[in-house]
Write a structure and sequence with these properties.
The chain is built from seven helices and 18 strands. The chain has 315 residues and is α+β, with helices and mostly antiparallel strands. Strands 6, 7, 9, 10, 11, 12, 15, 16, 17 and 18 form a ten-stranded mixed β-sheet that branches. A hairpin with a 2-residue loop joins strand 2 and strand 3. It is elongated and about 75 Å long. The chain starts with a strand and ends with a helix. One of its GO terms (molecular function) is 23S rRNA pseudouridine(1911/1915/1917) synthase activity. Responsible for synthesis of pseudouridine from uracil. It holds the Pfam family PseudoU_synth_2.
Length: 315
Amino acid sequence: MDRGVIILEATIAQAADGWRVDRALADAVPTLSRERLKVLINAGQVSQGDTAMRDPSRKARGGERFAVAVPAPTPAHNEAQDIPLVVAFEDEHLIVIDKPAGLVVHPAAGNLDGTLVNALLHHCHGSLSGIGGVARPGIVHRIDKDTSGLMVAAKTDRTHEGLAKQFAAHSIDRRYRAIVGGRPMPAAGSVDAPLARSPNNRKKVAIVQGGKRAVTHYRTLELLRDATLVECRLETGRTHQVRVHMASIGHALLGDPVYGRTKHAHKQVLDTLNFRRQALHAAHLGFVHPITGETLGFDSAMPPDMQELFSQLIV
């Protein structure tokens, strides 16, 4: 047997009788997504006895048995690095991380290593079954480098697909804590404004007619000294969404170097604390586990730097 191939035995459930065979196999093999199985079927990697099956649309029969030949995942292009992680939850399917401010999520120009992906490749070594055939964590959402808090990553192809569907359906419960300038009026409300790259500065995001729909629901948690601690619940998850939306209603995040205009009094506090980031923390993450169906919810307290800023601004 080819050591680079893993053979999975799969039996079609009686309840899946009459389904497309790619769908029925996805039900029988919890680590592989339907799209991945479709690719394997078309490549002749799914067989009954000595006969390869190459039609993912043919009807399955309950009780049928298949052998699925899955090539061992190829190594990820990025380097695994031993970077400490705070793990809020982990099983064989996914991992929830409490990301510190300052950690980039994904390697890119200017940040080719030292990222969350590098850290996950090390932490999850041996438990990544492959996303699209590559042994890598499935990143389905991101948090800005200088934003702290909770995010989830998939270990398997099936989990990645299931999480991606929930994000696309806007069913993920994401709530941020932010310290903003001034006092929003009304104390709770929504910002429904489309976002896209700014036509004047490609490094910034702006409210642009024709951009992607973006909705943020905010509510006041505590009044501070010419500032407010707010909760922002994301209906959508666009790049810089909370930062742009809150700035658009005149309440930019304290410390935001891109979208904020810091008042003198706040600047003194920020300088004293050496607070050099937007005051934004992903405090709650909730979703349905794509494999077990369990509803999961996680909470993260504000990190020490943001807690200290909050304390300095208490009225």
